[in-house]
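# nightly structure sweep
# worker-07 picked up a monomer target from the shared queue
# config: single-sequence mode, recycle default, output format = structure tokens
# input follows
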Amino acid sequence: MSPSFFEIVQLSNGDYALRRIDDDSEPLVKISFSAEAREMMEDRDMNVAKAMISAGIEAAGNVAHDIDWDEDEPDAHDIRPSYTLH
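# output follows
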């Protein structure tokens, strides 16, 4: 299997997307900023989108690394709340 290469592009609607270079299917990730957020970023929205995608890839790698693939059922003390705190 050949390695995939990715690119971050700006879509026609102004959103940013991460997609495979050699694939025209649906992007893997899309980032959309409100008009207010774009104004606050003062034309740095592409840099912010890159940072967000990079952080997401790193976080996904950490989560995949932390999974115990041999464990069938979670222990009672491993159960976490069903909400996300940011």
